[in-house]
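Re-run requested by the PI after the first attempt was lost when the workstation crashed. Everything re-entered from the original request form. Ligand of interest: KG4.
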Amino acid sequence: MAVVEDGRRVLVNLVFSQERAHAPFGGVVPELAARAHLEKLPGLVRAALSQAGARGEDVDSLAVTRGPGLVGCRLVGVGLAQGLGAAWGRPVTGVSHLWGHVYAAMLARPDLEPPLLALVVSGAHSDLVRMPAHGEFEVVGRTRDDAAGEAFDKAARTLGLGYPGGPVLDREARRGDWRRQPLPVPALPGLEYSFSGLKTALLYRVRDLGGSAALGEQARADLAAAFERSVVESLLEKLGRALDEWPASEVVLCGGVAANTLLRERAQAALAGRARLTIPPLALCTDNAAMIAAAASHTPPGGDLEADPSLSW
Ligand code: KG4
Ligand code: ZN
């Protein structure tokens, strides 16, 4: 739940993490996620307003994620936004979650304007996107199988690192050296990503080493580092290629996976001298409400609020 001014200035940005609720199951349980939205959102509305020093009536408009995402959570969010909109007499805009990830970069850098090229890497997407103008997006590359975040989550499970996979694998990789357990770097032609072969390569390597329980501390860290390196190199190789094909002076790297330590470091180096790179701070990379408010200021008002499972960009 966030309060944002003029689409570019974050006044309050609250995130209730459900990690603890889902950890025992090793992944997100949709039913639990929807229930937690129902339980937590009203309190978060009160907290956000109070921290912003505002009343509901001070809010000019409301923005809510309309998709893509879990249908139960979307229904709760949209229902709440419509209720508040009716009570306060304010319009409600349904926003694409993916637009939100790109607009997070404009919260980080209020002077940033399209045209730009973005790499959006989250739990469900690895999309290379051209943004010629506000509210216009053209996907020029995507994954043919797993998204980068999904690949990190599964690799963490294969290595016995637990949940949430991306952040734990990142921490583990900091103690490792990829050269001791090198894994292949996916190399499809064109601008398409694929992480399923890499995932299988990791699975076989762990099996050859006697299974995840038999892995020594160092081998586990080395494998985490190798997996991370292969994903990051593949992500950046295609980003470079996309930039060759669609030159842009501004590049945005965003989505939950953009919180990854190696990706952040390597992206700076990979793009040096080619384009100006903007990576939102960690709290604006992973899912948050401020980015939805930022995207709403460039989304046609009213917007369809129906939950649409096929909604993408
Ligand atoms: O954008 P996001 O918060 O939610 C979705 O829209 O999916 O992205 C979540 C994804 C998860 O797969 C998570 O494991 C990954 O981002 N992630 C990371 C890191 N932090 C979050 N992956 C690698 N390294 C991280 N530090
Ligand atoms: Zn997301």
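Saved to the shared folder this time. The longest strand covers residues 126-133.
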